[in-house]
UniProtKB/TrEMBL annotation:
<keyword id="KW-0820">tRNA-binding</keyword>
<feature type="region of interest" description="Interaction with tRNA">
    <location>
        <begin position="156"/>
        <end position="158"/>
    </location>
</feature>
<keyword id="KW-1015">Disulfide bond</keyword>
<feature type="site" description="Interaction with tRNA">
    <location>
        <position position="134"/>
    </location>
</feature>
<dbReference type="Pfam" id="PF03054">
    <property type="entry name" value="tRNA_Me_trans"/>
</dbReference>
<feature type="binding site">
    <location>
        <begin position="14"/>
        <end position="21"/>
    </location>
    <ligand>
        <name>ATP</name>
    </ligand>
</feature>
<comment type="function">
    <text>Catalyzes the 2-thiolation of uridine at the wobble position (U34) of tRNA, leading to the formation of s(2)U34.</text>
</comment>
<feature type="domain" description="tRNA-specific 2-thiouridylase MnmA-like C-terminal">
    <location>
        <begin position="290"/>
        <end position="365"/>
    </location>
</feature>
<keyword id="KW-0963">Cytoplasm</keyword>
<dbReference type="InterPro" id="IPR046884">
    <property type="entry name" value="MnmA-like_central"/>
</dbReference>
<dbReference type="Pfam" id="PF20258">
    <property type="entry name" value="tRNA_Me_trans_C"/>
</dbReference>
<comment type="similarity">
    <text>Belongs to the MnmA/TRMU family.</text>
</comment>
<dbReference type="GO" id="GO:0103016">
    <property type="term" value="F:tRNA-uridine 2-sulfurtransferase activity"/>
</dbReference>
<dbReference type="InterPro" id="IPR046885">
    <property type="entry name" value="MnmA-like_C"/>
</dbReference>
<dbReference type="InterPro" id="IPR023382">
    <property type="entry name" value="MnmA-like_central_sf"/>
</dbReference>
<keyword id="KW-0808">Transferase</keyword>
<dbReference type="InterPro" id="IPR014729">
    <property type="entry name" value="Rossmann-like_a/b/a_fold"/>
</dbReference>
Length: 381
């Protein structure tokens, strides 16, 4: 759904209470669309106030969004999706960590909340599109098909967390900030010119439903203490932990092993086993991943043609690109081989494939393949 669409659209603008979504709603209204603002009440305790600059789901954010809508001159509502958010995002987040995987709740929220629950309700009420403050671009081709592309400014690109959107969702998505070749400071200046109170509001950080940023503490309260062993690659016990869910692949800090490795080099989390509640650590070279298998693929448009093809891949929201060869097997499994080994790849993460700036699609990492220790050591020498 492009901003220069030939007809006036009924647009539902998701307003988080931050500056990006406020400016996006203002641009959509300025473009001549019939815009209605909506704030999603996602917190189980909406009367709480934000701690510092974290979070985006408090009553304070709701008030900020309402003030922005008043300035823009658009109707505004608050929709309570807390129960759906808890089931599809928060409970999923907890279950994934409990299973030894590393989820991305922002992708899950876009897939299940903003462009599923919210979009479905919007369409049922007669809206044509959902507008958000994400930095990405939807391109409408001459044949009527749509493509999701990176934002014009790579420094602000958020296409990774939108890689879960399918063709139907893209047809009703609007990202007014995607073509912006400006800095965040200039977005704030635009908000100030428009008289938006949120112009100087700090950005939210980390995971919105963990306001203090303490992920391990959040999980511990819900999963309880579960003492287990920290071992090396040979199975030698090096220490203990209070819950394997508190670790992620590639983690270096907070291991509390107590004594250095024989070679004096740092050790990193290599594996998390929920079955025996064991965390395995080892040298950085042992993190080198050469290939992976991903499941639950979602395509931003048509699925790729049969057979292996070369793409670039992104493995983290703020990570760089790496060249890969990928092939879809039986329509359900994506097999990916890296041109050069990469580190810090964990089951549960999303891999997003790109063809240039176009987002091909995404899938959830299920398993990884690593170089043998001997091979990794040889490569490091």
């Amino acid at each position: 759904m492009t901003d220069d669409a030939p007809r006036r659209l009924r647009v539902l603008a998701a307003m988080s209470g931050g500056v990006d979504s406020a400016v996006a709603a203002a641009r959509a209204a300025e473009a001549g669309h019939d815009v209605t603002g909506v704030h999603l009440a996602l917190s189980e305790n909406p009367k709480s106030f934000r701690t510092g600059a974290r979070g985006c789901c408090t009553i304070e954010d709701s008030h900020d969004a309402r003030r922005a809508a008043d300035v823009i001159g658009i109707p505004f509502y608050v929709w309570d999706l807390a129960e759906r958010f808890r089931a599809d995002v928060v409970d999923d987040f907890i279950a994934e960590y409990e299973a030894g995987r590393t989820p991305n709740p922002c992708l899950r929220c876009n897939e299940k909340i903003k462009f599923a629950a919210l979009l479905d309700k919007a369409l049922a009420l007669g809206f044509d599109a959902v507008c958000t403050g994400h930095y990405a671009t939807v391109v409408l081709n001459e044949d009527g098909s749509r493509e999701l592309h990176r934002a014009s400014d790579m420094a602000k690109d958020q296409s990774y967390v939108l890689g879960v959107l399918d063709d139907r969702q893209l047809a009703h998505a609007m990202f007014p900030l995607g073509d912006t070749l400006t800095t965040k400071a200039e977005i704030r200046e635009e908000a100030a010119r428009r008289g938006l109170f949120v112009a100087k509001k700090p950005d939210s950080h980390d995971i919105c439903f963990i306001a203090d940023g303490d992920t391990q503490g959040f999980l511990a309260k819900r999963l309880g203490a579960a003492t287990g062993d920290i071992v090396d690659e040979s199975g030698n016990r090096l220490g203990t932990h209070e819950g394997a869910y508190g670790f992620t692949i590639g983690q270096r800090k907070g291991l509390r092993i107590g004594h250095p490795a024989p070679d004096g080099k740092p050790r990193y989390v290599l594996d998390i086993s929920p079955v025996d509640n064991t965390v395995t650590v080892g040298p950085a070279e042992a993190l080198d991943v050469t290939a992976l298998t991903a499941i639950r693929p979602r395509w931003c448009g048509l699925p790729p043609a049969a057979g292996p093809a070369t793409y670039t891949a992104q493995l983290r929201a703020h990570g760089g690109e790496t060249e890969v060869t990928a092939e879809l097997i039986d329509g359900t499994e994506l097999q990916v081989t890296f041109t050069e080994p990469v580190r810090g790849v964990a089951p549960g993460q999303a891999i997003v494939l790109y063809d240039g700036t176009r987002v091909v699609g995404s899938a959830t990492i299920a398993t990884t393949e690593r170089r043998t220790t001997a091979g990794a050591q040889a490569a490091a020498q």
